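Q: How would the structure tokens look for this protein?
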Amino acid sequence: MTAAILSIPRASLHQQVARRLRQMLVENQIPPGAKLNERELAEVLQVSRTPLREAIKMLAAEGLVELVPNRGAIAVELNEADVLNTFEVMAGLEALSGELAAQRITEAELAEIRAMHFEMLAAYTRRDLPGYYRLNASIHAAINAAAKNPVLTAAYNQVNARLQALRFRSNQDEAKWQHAMAEHDTMIEALGKRDAGAMRKVLLEHLGNKREVVVEQLRHGTTQVAGATG
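A: Here is the predicted structure in token form.
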């Protein structure tokens, strides 16, 4: 396992560690089914085992890792049925987020999303998948926040946590990645026009396409299926 050494402030230390572990899961630095080695992780993240264990408990509560007796924490693996069911729910949450955001978004929120979109386009041009994905996730989260429904946001965060690693790896196919970028162009246009119907439509299609790519990868054994975040 390799990861950049992270300097973590003392405040909310276990939350900072949990955030870094989510990133490692998403980017496959901790592969699905792998044990989270506490000694190695403590060394890489430069923290003691106490905040590390608290962070692992957080990830377990989110369904990202499984605490197995006599084995410790294991990165969760999802089977095909899990993937289909989770994407089905996520598509509905994303579509509702987009629909409400188109009706409720402020000019400041729209400007911020547009700025992130242009940064994401630059990452796509560089073929910087980690950078692209982090901006992509931030855009989806910002659309959800613009919906201004805290119950929706809570459900969104919980379900999305299980899919982040899969959404990250679905862009490893060049043609599919290009299509996903085009769908984001459509989202920005629909948001700018405050077109709730168009936002709902493009987000349903976007998540449906992600689901198809992930299931195809799973069936052909070209990717491992794992729960993750961010």
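Confidence is low (pLDDT under 50) at residues 1-8, 223-230.

The chain is about 70% helix and 5% strand.

Upvote if useful.
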